[in-house]
Amino acid sequence: MQLFIDTADIAVLKALAETGLVDGVTTNPSLIAKSGRQFIPTIAEICELIPGPISAEVAAIDAPTMIKEGEKLAGIASNVVVKLPLTFEGLKACAHFASQGIMTNVTLCFSVTQALLAAKAGATYVSPFVGRLEDQGADGIELLAEIRAVYDTYGYETEILAASIRTPAQVKAAALAGADCATLPPGVFRDLVKHPLTDKGLEQFLSDWKGTGQSILGELG
Ligand code: E4P
């Protein structure tokens, strides 16, 4: 499963990239606004920092302008993924980019029928918003599993990118539901490695080791 980070904060991305476990990045207009930075140079910097797919979202709502914006974004670097809203206009732009071999991420997906349309339009990724569904009491993970079943039945190659993730438990559930990738807020990514028994076990090992008075690097080989 590929793990992307959902942020436009370069300092945070630099720190997380050092783990070697970040496969890509997603941004959206809200995250760009939160960064307080200019959109195009920010995407360029992220593309240099992380070699994987970097989603950059158009701001237009009509297909012709989305296509112009998407072409500009795709020109920033070869790893840019043009992010498009799940509307008929967004899907028209998606089909255009698919015919040009430009990667796309169709975002704001909340239903299986929307995901079906995204696949038919040739999307590289579709982003079902798990957290926003669950905020409303709906089952975001079930949506992932249903999209997986439909895509597998018809052999669609569009990758399911679980988005709007709020907890490590949702990452686990998304993996079990067959999502190809998940995009995580930085805090959720950091929490994936945590377990109280890991901390407790490590503390015990270190204490017992200290008691031996030995040093691995001090030993003769
Ligand atoms: C996905 O591409 C979106 O940027 C993101 O996951 C939305 O998450 P939110 O619902 O926490 O804003």
List keywords for this structure.
221 residues, alpha/beta, TIM Barrel, 8-stranded parallel barrel, 11 helices, 16% strand, globular, binds erythose-4-phosphate
Any guess at the CATH architecture? Answer: Alpha-Beta Barrel
CATH superfamily: Aldolase class I
Shape: globular
Overall domain count: 1
| DSSP summary: helix tally | 11
Name the strands of the widest sheet in spatial order: 1-2-3-4-5-6-7-8
How many strand units? Answer: 8
Distance between the termini: 39 Å
Helix-strand layout with pairing:
Layout: E1 2-6, H1 10-17, E2 24-26, H2 29-35, H3 39-49, E3 54-57, H4 63-74, E4 80-85, H5 88-100, E5 104-109, H6 112-120, E6 125-128, H7 130-135, H8 140-154, E7 159-162, H9 168-176, E8 181-184, H10 186-191, H11 196-212
Parallel strand pairs: 1-2, 1-8, 2-3, 3-4, 4-5, 5-6, 6-7, 7-8
Helix pairs in contact: 1-3, 4-5, 6-8
Bound molecules: erythose-4-phosphate (E4P).
Structural features, described:
This protein is an alpha/beta fold and 221 residues long. The protein has one domain: Alpha-Beta Barrel (TIM Barrel). Helices cover 51% and strands 16% of the residues. The protein is built from eleven helices and eight strands. It has helices at 10-17, 29-35, 39-49, 63-74, 88-100, 112-120, 130-135, 140-154, 168-176, 186-191, 196-212, and strands at residues 2-6, 24-26, 54-57, 80-85, 104-109, 125-128, 159-162, 181-184. It has an eight-stranded parallel β-barrel with strand order 1-2-3-4-5-6-7-8, surrounded by six helices. α9 links the parallel β7 (159-162) and β8. α1 (10-17) runs parallel beside α3, α4 (63-74) crosses α5 (88-100) and α6 (112-120) runs parallel beside α8 (140-154). The radius of gyration is 20 Å and the shape is globular. The protein starts with a strand and ends in a 9-residue tail after the last helix. Erythose-4-phosphate is lined by residues 6, 26, 28, 107, 127, 129, 131-132, 163-164, 183.
